[in-house]
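Risk mitigation, structural track. In case the binding assays with magnesium ion fail to produce interpretable data, a predicted complex structure has been prepared as a fallback.
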Amino acid sequence: MKIICVGRNYAAHARELNNAVEENPVIFLKPETALIPARQPFFIPSFSSDVHYETELVVRISKVGKNINEKFAHRYYDAVSLGIDFTARDLQSALKAKGLPWELAKGFDGSAPVGRFIPLDETGKTVQDLRFRMEINGELKQEGHTADMVFPVDRIVSFVSSFFTLKIGDLIFTGTPAGVGPVKAGDQLMAFLEGEKVLSLKIK
Ligand code: MG
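Fallback model:
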């Protein structure tokens, strides 16, 4: 399986990092080893002293597809959750300054914890009408609504599938709203999708 991520998909977050919003989604990948097994903590890697959380809606692919028309894209995913796109911001900034790829700052082990999936039809909502939030140690850090995405999920699925064949179980991280920030050892992250807790993660 692969983990496909979208960058700069909420205008307010693009602004907070001084990034332009592009004409097409900004796409990068994380390896399968970026996932964290259930109930395991996230270990801050030794190569970074500024690891940031980015709370994102995660969409699970349920059908193989290539060159998917945006109109039919909704048939290719069936469940949603929240994930954290952990980013070694110091390393990413150094790589960006040199015009180099981001993978080391974004795809390291444990950089993509994902919560419990909820079948989309159980939410009673469309994928572009979902509210989510993330708290650290009980304090609200990020709040998002999927209606604020620059590129809606169906557009992302269609765009990505013209480059990569989507396979069952692939995950798409759809970008983070504003409010990203650092984590430190001892923090407890909790993420809520439509008010339901789907992710709980200890930082070590
Ligand atoms: Mg992100």
